[in-house]
From TrEMBL, chain A:
Organism: Candidatus Atribacter allofermentans
Assembly description: The complex is composed of two ATP-binding proteins (LsrA), two transmembrane proteins (LsrC and LsrD) and a solute-binding protein (LsrB).
Molecular function via GO: transmembrane transporter activity
Function: Part of the ABC transporter complex LsrABCD involved in autoinducer 2 (AI-2) import. Probably responsible for the translocation of the substrate across the membrane.
Transcription regulation among keywords: no
UniProt name for this protein: Autoinducer 2 import system permease protein LsrD
TrEMBL record, chain B:
Membrane-spanning parts: 22-43, 55-74, 102-121, 128-148, 182-200, 231-251, 263-279, 286-307, 313-333
Annotated GO CC locations: plasma membrane
Alphabetical list of InterPro entries matching this protein: ABC_transp_permease (IPR001851)
Main localization (coarse): membrane
Subunit comment: The complex is composed of two ATP-binding proteins (LsrA), two transmembrane proteins (LsrC and LsrD) and a solute-binding protein (LsrB).
Gene of this entry: rbsC_41
Keywords from the UniProt entry: Cell inner membrane, Cell membrane, Membrane, Transmembrane, Transmembrane helix, Transport
Function summary: Part of the ABC transporter complex LsrABCD involved in autoinducer 2 (AI-2) import. Probably responsible for the translocation of the substrate across the membrane.
Metal-binding is among the record's keywords: no
Compartments where located: Cell membrane
Keyword match RNA-binding: no
Protein's name according to its UniProt entry: Autoinducer 2 import system permease protein LsrD
């Protein structure tokens, strides 16, 4: 009996178990597209799919921030990413002023903003043990306040540098350039998280704080760094956002925050930390975007869109994340 | 070892004050004094009534949210649920037919129970992380609310104004009007909520809510039906939100599918300021009320201190962090010194 239990599983079994959620997410996306094609008859077109990919990549970028913070455990979540990106976009718009030569200054400013905000989030949550949900919410308020103060009595001026526009808004052929960025980022993230010690430390701290501590890792430092990375990434996403939109405005990033958390969860990131696969997260983002597109295309208006979004997400959570106790 | 015990026994006044709970009372007193200095007519009955009216929805949402948080959950759908209830109330009511008010009350109460049950099933029975499941349900409530009321509006019967101000109701008894100018309906609704929680906290359910929140697995192992308790907590929350919705419709005579959105996170922040631990199982609902008062006075003070409009979100964000960090930083500092 025991021998049978310990029998090594076949490779296909291992792959399936490890990537079960990825496979399911993939099937769901295809299902949505097929459903859209049946109902609307021109939903499954190449340009439509590519547009979905492009829109989804921004959610996926934000979801990377969430994934890193959530994986580090301790109830981590980063609600400040939206306004972090907005702040960077608003401030760098006037710095860049449509000149390529100013891009490097904008990047440095973005990095500085990201480190400052991310580090304060990290210090407050990891070292003072304040709940991340409230701290990052308050931080979002503070950033929103800074934007309000900056924009009070003046217009947000400036344009993104042309390079940024090419990266974020333009397409090569019909393939959006920003998707290339996402692909490169995915490969990088997968390598760092799966093949280097960094990923092990991050997931180790997230899955069992005490074990990680006893094995000599500085749990607080790791969580603090996770928040800092999230801040820096969000800030850089701000550059991409303004590149895509062409102008900066007050609320450009705030609509991505909760969908990015949802994408992470749908993509198989455990909210208690220590688990996550960025490829799944991207599929989660694509799924949510496809769903939104489909619901918009159905023409039920705002009410139908949000109701459908809520119900499908709820149903998905039941199937996916539910951890029912069996008596 | 003896040193530690000694340090804990030496309950000097300062240390007592800096227990997270009591430090909140201190902050509240400071805020009250500040507001009293800034607002010239602070102690006049009219000003007090106006303040209570302005604070009331946040107070009730915070108390409800606190119950859910103590039971180990979290409610991100509170704001949308509040909007939904206002939309249902104003859709059912017909302006010239006073009886529809009663139907509206009953139907909306049913909707409130339904909202609580759905959230409770997600959190308790299906054990989906509360943050994400209530996020999903918040979109459901928003969707239904928008379906009923795409733009703010709707009708309300005349006597519904009584939930806001007895004086506004035509033909109300003089004595009630007199009473209402001292004790506003908003305060009565808050007292009803406090009384409800007082009764519940004395029952088994009340104690189980704490047990489930502090350690779900242990509570389950000792025979508590944890899922049912979390469901109950969600229903209690929903009823508190329902009370807030009554007040809101009484005040505005209209429903708005978006009005509650900004309250959701503020209610959670208020609960945390009031000493409720987001990990569950710790804190007091009455102190959550204090937290909500603190958060409300923050806005009041910002308003009266003549801080430019643009700075308001910035300052209130900073104050939230200071309010939750202060007591914790102090205890950390004390522990390291001992």
């Amino acid at each position: 009996m025991g021998v049978e239990l310990n029998r090594p599983k076949s490779i296909t079994q291992i792959i399936f178990e490890k990537y079960k959620k990825v496979v399911v997410a993939f099937i769901l996306i295809i299902l949505l597209f097929v459903l859209g094609e049946i109902i609307l008859s021109n939903f499954l077109r190449v340009d439509q799919v590519l547009l979905t990919l492009k829109l989804a990549s921004f959610t996926a970028f934000f979801a990377l921030c969430q994934m890193i913070v959530i994986s580090a455990g301790g109830g981590g979540l980063d609600l400040s990413v939206g306004y972090m990106a907005t702040m960077t976009a608003v401030f760098t718009a006037s710095i860049m002023d449509g000149q390529n030569g100013n891009l490097w200054i904008a990047v440095i400013v973005a990095l500085a903003f990201g480190v400052a905000v991310g580090l304060s989030n990290g210090l407050l949550t990891a070292y003072l043990k304040l709940p991340p949900l409230v701290v990052t919410m308050a931080m979002a308020n503070i950033l929103q306040g800074i934007i309000n103060v900056y924009t009070a009595g003046r217009n947000i001026t400036g344009k993104p540098s042309p390079v940024l526009t090419i990266i974020a808004a333009k397409s090569t052929g019909s393939f959006p350039n920003v998707v290339f960025i996402l692909i490169v980022l995915t490969i990088l993230v997968m390598i760092v998280l799966n093949k280097t010690k960094l990923g092990m430390i991050l997931f180790g701290v997230g899955s069992n704080e005490r074990t990680a501590y006893l094995s000599g890792f500085n749990v607080k430092l790791v969580r603090c760094i996770a928040f800092t990375i999230s801040g820096v990434l969000a800030s850089l996403i701000g550059l991409l956002l303004i590149g895509n939109m062409g102008i900066a405005f007050k609320d450009m990033g705030s609509n991505y925050v909760m969908p990015s958390i949802a994408a992470a969860v749908v993509g198989g990131v455990s909210l208690s930390g220590g688990d996550g696969n960025y490829f799944g997260v991207i599929l989660g983002a694509i799924f949510l975007q496809t769903l939104t597109n489909l619901l918009i295309a159905m023409g039920w208006g705002d009410a139908g869109k949000w109701l459908g979004f809520g119900i499908v997400l709820f149903a998905l959570l039941i199937v996916y994340v539910s951890n029912r106790r069996t008596r | 070892m003896s040193k530690i015990i000694k340090a804990e026994q030496g309950t000097s006044f300062i240390k007592g004050i800096f227990k997270p709970e009591y430090s909140n009372l201190l902050i509240l007193i400071v805020m009250l004094t500040l507001t009293a200095v800034l607002q010239k007519n602070f102690f006049e009955i009219k000003a007090i009534v106006r303040n209570i009216n302005a604070f009331m929805p946040l107070i009730l949402l915070t108390m409800g949210g606190a119950v859910v948080i103590i039971s180990g959950g979290l409610d991100l759908s509170a704001g949308s649920a509040l909007s939904l209830f206002t939309c249902v109330l104003t859709t059912v009511m017909k302006k010239n037919d006073p009886v529809t008010g009663i139907y509206a009350l009953l139907i909306t109460f049913g909707v409130a129970i339904f909202v609580g049950v759905i959230n409770g099933i997600g959190i308790g029975y299906l054990r989906i992380p509360p943050v994400i499941v209530t996020f999903a349900t918040s979109y459901m409530w928003l969707g239904i609310a928008l379906f009923l009321r795409p733009t703010p509006g709707g009708e309300s019967v005349d006597w519904f104004k009584g939930f806001y101000n007895f004086n506004a109701v035509q033909g109300a008894p003089e004595i009630l009007k007199k009473f209402g100018s001292y004790i506003p309906p908003a305060l009565i609704l808050i007292i009803i909520a406090c009384f409800l929680w007082f009764i519940i906290s004395k029952t088994k359910t009340g104690r189980y809510i704490y047990a489930v929140g502090s350690n779900n697995d242990s509570a389950y192992a000792s025979g508590i039906n944890t899922a049912k308790i979390q469901l109950m907590a969600c229903i209690i929350n929903s009823i508190f939100i329902f009370l807030a919705a009554l007040f809101f419709v009484g005040q505005n005579q209209s429903g708005d599918a978006r009005m509650g959105d900004p309250l959701t996170l503020r209610a959670i922040a208020s609960a945390v300021v009031g000493g409720i631990a987001l990990t569950g199982g710790r804190g007091s609902v009455y102190f959550a009320l204090v937290g909500a008062l603190i958060m409300s006075f923050v806005n009041k003070i910002i308003f009266f201190a003549n801080i430019p409009n643009a700075y308001q979100t910035l300052v209130s964000g900073l104050i939230v962090i200071i309010a939750i960090a202060g007591p914790i930083a102090y205890t950390l500092y004390n522990r390291e010194r001992a």
